[in-house]
Design brief:
The protein has nine helices and two strands. The chain has 266 residues and is mainly alpha-helical. The chain has two domains: 23-127; 130-266, no CATH class. Strands 1-2 form a two-stranded antiparallel ribbon. It is globular and about 60 Å long.
């Protein structure tokens, strides 16, 4: 029940944010979620180092998120060298106080890309023409893929998809999630857009479903490597913020680029 209530509240809040907020408010809320995810990530992967290193992980990862407020992809791209420079300066100046300087460099650097940059692409997608519709479509694909994967996996799952990383995922679940994501995307696109190219929508939905699974597995690799079950406990029954957005992290940049460069035209 706790999981259901939290899911309904988060889902309702997300829909309200999509349909009733300005770009600036959307950027602010997404940035806040990104900060929380960065904090969870830094706490997981830098547990053995000084507290300042974990704060650095949040600060550096927040640079592309803050840059996304300008609504321009080139500004977000330009923010990445700045974030990297801040990281390098900190590690060089604080080298002697760090338990594992190389771990700080590599793990914070990954966090900048994986969470900061990828989350910033949600904001960039919101700023595109029909941005709200694209985000709604992306959300529907993600939710449908997860839902269909869960039930098809329970009913037909025998062969494990990637047992070393996520023992619960099955090949049948993956296929069911793929079919469900494509079906929901095609139906929803027919209502959202005037002249959608449904074969292209189906192809992109299949690609996004696959990439979403990889995003989920990526976080599973991180959690398994550091020995934790959830990234946090801020969402009762669901774990942390990072646990809820992991499937979106890799799909958001992909869909943004497809839309921004005109591959998807409606």
């Amino acid at each position: 029940m706790k999981r259901l209530i939290t899911g309904l509240l988060v889902g309702g809040g997300w829909l309200a944010l999509l349909f009733f907020s300005s770009f600036s408010v959307f950027w602010l809320i997404i940035s806040l979620a990104g900060f929380l995810a960065l904090y969870e990530f830094s706490t997981m992967v830098l547990r053995t180092d000084v507290g300042a290193a974990r704060l650095l992980g949040v600060f550096c990862g927040a640079v592309p998120l803050l840059a996304a407020g300008f609504g321009r992809s080139e500004v977000v791209a330009a923010s990445l060298p700045l974030a990297l420079l801040i990281l390098v300066v900190f590690v060089v100046l604080g080298y002697q106080s760090l338990v594992d300087p190389l771990a700080v460099l590599s793990r914070v650097g990954f966090g900048i890309l994986y969470i900061g940059f990828c989350t910033a692409n949600l904001v960039l997608l919101r700023g595109e023409p029909n941005g709200v519709k694209w985000l709604l479509l992306l959300t529907a694909i993600t939710v449908a893929s997860d839902t269909f994967a869960y039930y098809s996996g329970r009913l037909f799952g025998r062969r494990k998809l990637c047992p070393a990383v996520s023992p619960g995922k099955t090949v049948a679940g993956f296929i069911g999630g793929l079919v469900g994501g494509v079906a929901v995307a095609v139906v929803l696109a027919a209502f959202l857009f005037t002249r959608p190219l449904l074969p292209m929508v189906a192809l992109v939905a299949a690609l996004l479903s696959c990439v979403g699974v990889m995003g989920d597995l990526c976080e599973s690799v991180i959690k398994r490597a550091v020995g934790v079950k959830d990234s946090g406990a801020i969402l009762p029954g669901h774990g942390g913020v990072l646990d809820r957005i992991d499937s979106l992290l890799l799909t958001a940049p992909l869909l943004f680029n497809l839309v921004h460069f005109g591959t998807l035209v409606t």
